[in-house]
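Comment thread on ticket #2218

A.B. wrote:
> Attaching the input chain for the structure job we discussed in standup.
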Amino acid sequence: MSMIERFRNRRDASRRARAIEAALRSANSPAVRDEILAIAQRHMH
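C.D. wrote:
> Ran it. Output below, let me know if you need it in another format.
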């Protein structure tokens, strides 16, 4: 894996983490939060 690919992967992971954090902050109910977390965990593996 090249240095550029590693940088892109890290940048994408950071962007995903920020998007997940924003979605969790704006979630109105615990059920929505749980759904966001389930989707995020599925995406990580």
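A.B. wrote:
> Thanks. Noting for the ticket: The CA atoms of residues 25 and 34 lie 12 Å apart.
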